[in-house]
UniProtKB/TrEMBL annotation:
<comment type="similarity">
    <text>Belongs to the CobU/CobP family.</text>
</comment>
<dbReference type="Pfam" id="PF02283">
    <property type="entry name" value="CobU"/>
</dbReference>
<dbReference type="GO" id="GO:0016779">
    <property type="term" value="F:nucleotidyltransferase activity"/>
</dbReference>
<dbReference type="InterPro" id="IPR027417">
    <property type="entry name" value="P-loop_NTPase"/>
</dbReference>
<keyword id="KW-0067">ATP-binding</keyword>
<keyword id="KW-0548">Nucleotidyltransferase</keyword>
<keyword id="KW-0342">GTP-binding</keyword>
<dbReference type="GO" id="GO:0016301">
    <property type="term" value="F:kinase activity"/>
</dbReference>
<keyword id="KW-0169">Cobalamin biosynthesis</keyword>
<comment type="function">
    <text>Catalyzes ATP-dependent phosphorylation of adenosylcobinamide and addition of GMP to adenosylcobinamide phosphate.</text>
</comment>
<comment type="pathway">
    <text>Cofactor biosynthesis; adenosylcobalamin biosynthesis; adenosylcobalamin from cob(II)yrinate a,c-diamide: step 5/7.</text>
</comment>
<comment type="pathway">
    <text>Cofactor biosynthesis; adenosylcobalamin biosynthesis; adenosylcobalamin from cob(II)yrinate a,c-diamide: step 6/7.</text>
</comment>
<keyword id="KW-0418">Kinase</keyword>
<dbReference type="InterPro" id="IPR003203">
    <property type="entry name" value="CobU/CobP"/>
</dbReference>
<keyword id="KW-0547">Nucleotide-binding</keyword>
<protein>
    <recommendedName>
        <fullName>Adenosylcobinamide kinase</fullName>
        <ecNumber>2.7.1.156</ecNumber>
        <ecNumber>2.7.7.62</ecNumber>
    </recommendedName>
</protein>
<keyword id="KW-0808">Transferase</keyword>
Length: 187
């Protein structure tokens, strides 16, 4: 059964850590789909450290834009993160917000046609105020619209605040699962 979960929040709010625990509650062998573009050797080393920290139970896939290239039916897939993924479209399309947003939406739709559990991690970059930089303003708009698009299609939306998951949109069956994840944080 297809399921889409969106985990959002500010920088260092605990989004990724919570998403990883949730994925491991849903599957003993989840998939980690990383969307970051490797821009230098230092960042490459950081990615390698993150992969090692996650452990052998994870299948790690690096994919900058074309998520739908990967057939992941029946899997639990953590996509980290939407912000970096959108950044790749935004800059590759010369900051054309309309084209970047349309392309990201099309790719999201293709990817989520699969019967899988998708856990998308994203940032609420517009919550911290508006930048004076016009390019940042354009990206913040695009990111906010993409977050809204994913949230409208998600079965569940979780807002992370200071490491605490707050359910914004949910259905009853997964409510018990999140209580298990929260309890595991306390142990």
């Amino acid at each position: 059964m297809k399921r889409i979960i969106l985990i959002t929040g500010g920088s260092h709010s605990g989004k990724s850590a919570y998403a990883e625990k949730l994925a491991l509650c849903l599957s003993p062998t989840p998939v980690y789909l990383a969307t970051a573009r490797i821009w230098d050797e230092e960042f490459r080393e950081r990615v390698a450290r993150h992969q090692q920290r996650r452990g052998a139970e994870w299948t790690n896939i690096e994919e900058e834009k074309e998520l739908s290239r990967h057939r992941l039916e029946g899997k639990v897939v953590l996509i980290d993160c939407v912000t970096l993924w959108c950044t790749n479209f935004f800059f590759d399309l010369n900051a054309d917000v309309d084209r970047a947003l349309a392309t990201a939406k099309e790719e999201f739709n293709r990817f989520t046609e699969q019967e899988a559990t998708f856990i998308f991690v994203t940032n609420e970059i517009g919550m911290g105020g508006v930048s004076e930089n016009k390019l940042q303003q354009k990206f913040t708009d695009m990111q906010g619209w993409m977050n809204q698009y994913i949230a409208s299609r998600a079965d569940e939306v979780i807002l992370m605040v200071a490491g605490i998951p707050m359910q914004v949109k949910n259905d009853e069956p997964t409510n018990l699962l999140h209580q298990r994840v929260i309890k595991s944080n306390d142990e």
